[in-house]
Amino acid sequence: MAVNGNETTGLIREAKAGSPAAIERLYERHAPRLLAFIRLRLGRTLRAHLESRDILQAALLRSFERLSQLEGNQEGELMAWLMRIAENEIRDRADYYQRQRRDATRDVPLDEAHAAIAAEIRSMSSRIVLDEEAARLERAIERLSDAHREIILLRKFEELGYREIAARLGRSEDACRMLLARAMAALTVAMTEGTT
Amino acid sequence: MTRPSDLEDRLAAFVDHHLRTGETMPLNTLCEGRTDLVEPLAALVRQYLRVSAALDCDRAAPPPEAAPAPPALDGFRTIERLGGGGAGEVYKLEDLRLGRVVAAKVLRRDRALSAGFEDFLREARALALFKDRRFVQIHEFRPDVDPPVIVMELVEGFELGKLGPSLEFGQRARIVAEVCGALAHAHALGLQHRDLKPSNVMLDAQLEPRLLDFGLSGADSSRGHLRGTLPYVAPEQLDPDRPIDARADVYALGVVFYELLCGVPPFAGHEPGEVVAAIRAGRPRLPVEVDPRVPEPLQAIALKAMERDPVARYQSAREMAEDLQRFLDGRPVLARPTAYAAALGTRVAPHVEQIAEWARLKLIYPYEAARLRGAYRQLDRREDDWIVESRVLSYSQIALYLGAFFLVAGSLFYFAADRVYGAVEGVWRPFLVLGLPFLGLNLVGHFLYRREHQAVAVAFYLAGAGLLPLFLLILFHEAGLWRVDAGTAGQLFLDGSVSNRQLQLTTFAAAVWCGWLALRTRTVALSTVCTFVVLLLALAIAGDLGLRHWIDEDRWDRVALLLAPLVPVYGAAAWRLERGGRAWFSRPLYVGAAVLLVAVVELVALDGRLFGYLGISLRALQASGVSNPSLIDTLTAMTLNGVLFYTVASALERRGSEVMEVASWLLFTITPFAVLEPLGYLGETGEYARGFDWFYLALAVTIAVLSHARQRKAFYYAGLINSAWALWLLADHYQWFDRPAWAITLVAAGLAVLATGFALARRERSAG
Fold it and tell me: Mean pLDDT, to the nearest integer, of B415-441?
């Protein structure tokens, strides 16, 4: 994070200024983690109905449309922002999936100038390959209890502060800290089990 | 062993500490009093640190490899590195004086050799020439700094290769059409790109293509060998002895388009050598095999652009752009790449082998095998070969053959005007009307043939071959060569218009000419014409041997004997040519031999001559009242001819090659008619014993029924046609036209046969 932090900050600034190259690199860098988050957020049941890459695509396209609304230009802020958009997208679709599957690539209106970037985003989101290690981690997180998985998603993926997490989960900040420690320990054990 | 939760508790304590402080707690403190836990806990802690690192740090892809030193240019500030091309690194710079952002290409230090420098100069000069927006503009060339730098327009966009897969096929076609247009512009100025590849085509925000890296371009057409980037290098660039021109760019663009269509390059390999070998072989997979969504017209355009042989490609980027525009306008494209025929050929071959296998296993009948093979051969046939046999009719073909037809028809009229009506005098006019066109057609045909315009060349040759004999005949007459007076004995044409010698020389010249052309162009069209002209030559020679006399005397047996030597000549020539791998020449010869065989033996059989030659006669068996005494001999000979045809056809089918199949099929078809027609004639004469018409009917029906044994449809149809004829003869002889009983008998017979058919079908079904 420290290594990339400065570069990310620069990229975010350029992306906001409208540089396609910066947008491309920014998204390329963050898409794998966002995809992992989406898959975990969906869970097994929803994943059977919703295509996580569709959601990734839609989330990236939406974020690109609203790039100017991104406050701050820090790595964590961007990630949290992207994941929030993805979460909204998931919620929308979870309500929707029984009626029909939507084509993520169609429902975001774009003008000509943005079409190229949108096309790149689409292409990129189908290119991402999760490496074996990331896939193992994902499976291990999936095996955790709901509470453990939730706190890891909130803290480690969405990078929310403890205050916000506490508000969301309806617990004290301390309890959340303790829960995260427990969740990480459980995840470690799960990963160990996965290897042996 | 300790409870897992005990271990987990301690791990949780470690994690909590790590999360709060970011520090690792000493394991000894954690495992106080439980030294046995140190080891398993240490393993868990290592795992935790890995997991934690993975969760925290994989939020971003690894940073790009360390960029080489940015260019040090006065008045510019380096913003970032954009990427590296084959020739140099590209940076994004800010021009501090003009306050604009530009791109700068810097030669790689390790490749900063003089050759690279020259490439740079050339690129700079070439690009400075263009005012075309589709080429990335050069702002400045700085050879003074080390390494040299080209400062150029910065294109904010994406490389074609990266963006391609997410575009509509129509968009891809439009973009490549734009690139074609740009290239055509460059080619018109004498510049070739020589290193086209997807990374050298940028798409700006409006998805307009911009061409980069005219680094290898130069006006010198000999340059460019072994340069460029695999696999976008044209085959001729791999061979220093072959000239290179703008079509190498067309090739590269074809490869770019191919990759753009189906997502993978046409030629790939682990080693450059493999790629080079694949390019030389030039057998790419069809894009639709890779991605079934690829529209066929676009596939055809890509494959035509990347034909191995430059003459088969689009001859210019402009032509390719026009074909792409046809697709975009919804019109049919013109491209018909040879890759289709090649791909089809390799697929057809195993099928043909399978057909033989099926026939061997008796899954299909021999005639079905022959028909299937014929159908496959049709597929395999070249499309520009012969308009009647071609799989695809094109306007160009139709126009060419129609033109040749009119030309020959016109020359025939001219011939008639000269020789019959004497409306033309002198040598010069015929020379202008027929001789000059002949020479011109052959010159152009020759030129076109060398330029690989096969179809056009063959049409021109054919038209020329039609003109030649007519021109020679007129020429001979007007020049007074080998002329004979009207009424001279022993001439084919008694009016003196054409002498035997003139005919012989003319047909001989035409036969040699057509034969040579056929061997040269390897086309069935010309070999068929040659076969026909040889027959005319034989007739002309027979003229000296009294052909006219025998015709006037109605001695058709003599005529046939004069022509008889041609059958073995055709057969032997066909055999030799087939052995020499010239099946396209031997097939018409085999057919010619078969047709001549039928004509000769049937003519010899007329008037009982055949039996006369053999010294036998069946007249004793004939009823006394028949007016034509040799009738029985004639008809028996003809019937025996049918047997001969059948024997020859069977022998050809069993022993003969595939090329002889058509001749064999022809004889098989003629056989039943040859056998039945004489009997029909016998029944028709009426002078004959009444029983013959019944016999005729019985034989016709028998042949129809026996067609089952031989599985020959021709027999079945011949049996049906002849039995219908026999029924009519019967009604005619007995005057039964006004007898309903006759009709009722036939209806009853029909019902009875139908019932038999039903019973047989039931038995077959229950047996099956």
Answer: 88
How close does chain B come to A122, measured CA to CA in Å?
A: 7
Residue A68 token pair = 């100017």
B163 Cβ under 8 Å from any chain A Cβ: yes
Chain A residues with CB inside 8 Å of B58's CB? 32-33, 134
Residues B356 and A48: their CA atoms lie apart, in Å, by: 50
Instruction: Give the burial class of B699: count Cβ atoms within 10 A of its Cβ; 0-12 exposed, 13-18 middle, 19 or more buried.
Output: buried
Interface test with A, best of B45, B166, B202, B206 (most A CBs within 10 A): B166
Asked whether the beta carbons of residue B156 and residue A20 sit closer than 8 angstroms, the reply is: yes
What mean pLDDT is reported for chain B? 81
Tell whether the torsion through CA atoms of B98, B101, B107 and B110 is positive or negative.
positive
Take residue B64 and report the two structure tokens written for it: 């790009």
Structure tokens at B185: 């512009």
Give the three-class secondary structure for B151: strand
Query: Is it the case that residue B147 has pLDDT exceeding 90?
Result: no
Fold adopted by B76-334 = Transferase(Phosphotransferase); domain 1 (1.10.510)
Whether B15 and A134 lie within 8 Å, measured CB to CB: no
Instruction: Report B:7-36 residues touching A (Cβ under 8 A).
Output: 8, 11-16, 19-20
For residues B539 and B556, is the Cβ–Cβ distance under 8 A?
A: no
Q: Do B163 and A178 touch (CB under 8 A)?
A: no
The minimal CB distance from B12 to the residues A1, A120, A185 is found for A185
**Distance of residue B580 Cα from the nearest chain A Cα, in angstroms:** 56
Q: How far apart are CA B695 and CA B684, in angstroms?
A: 12
Class of domain A5-130: mainly alpha
**pLDDT range class, residue B632, cuts 50, 70, 90:** confident
Identify the pLDDT of residue B66. 39
Q: Is B69 helix (H, G, I), strand (E, B) or coil?
A: coil
pLDDT digits 0-9 by tens, B514-527: 999 988 888 888 89
Distance CA A181, CA A195 (A): 21
Q: Does residue B60 sit at the A interface (CB-CB below 8 Å)?
A: yes
Asked if B63's CB is within 8 angstroms of A188's CB, the reply is no
The whole-angstrom distance between A86's CA and the closest CA on chain B is 15
Nearest CA in chain B to A112: B206
Q: What does the domain layout of chain B look like in residue ranges?
A: 4-52, 76-334, 341-380, 414-541
Give the pTM: 0.50
**Cα(B362)–Cα(B359) distance, rounded to whole angstroms?**
5
- DSSP-assigned letters across all residues of B256-321: HHHHHHHSS-SS--SSHHHHHHHHHHT-PPPHHHH-TTS-HHHHHHHHHHT-SSGGGS-SSHHHHH
Which segments of chain A belong to CATH 1.10.10.10?
144-196
Task: Indicate the residue of B15, B55, B204 with minimum beta-carbon distance to A156.
Answer: B55
State the Rg of chain A over Cα: 17
Per-residue pLDDT of B103-120, as tens digits, reads: 887 765 544 444 556 666
Residue range(s) of every CATH 1.10.1740.10 domain in chain A = 5-130
Q: Which of A188, A177, A191 is nearest to B48 (CA)?
A: A188
Please report which helix (H) or strand (E) contains residue B162, including its range.
helix B160-163
In whole angstroms, what is the distance from residue A90 CA to residue A76 CA?
Answer: 21
Inter-chain CB proximity B16 and A177 less than 8 Å? yes
Q: Which residues on chain B are in Cβ contact (under 8 Å) with A29? A: 60-61
Q: Which of B9, B49, B51 to mutate to test the interface with A (most CBs of A within 10 A)?
A: B51
> Are B11 and A189 in contact (CB < 8 Å)?
yes
CATH number 3.30.470.20 is the correct assignment for the domain at A144-196: no
Q: Which residues of A touch B16 (CB under 8 A)?
A: 177-178, 181
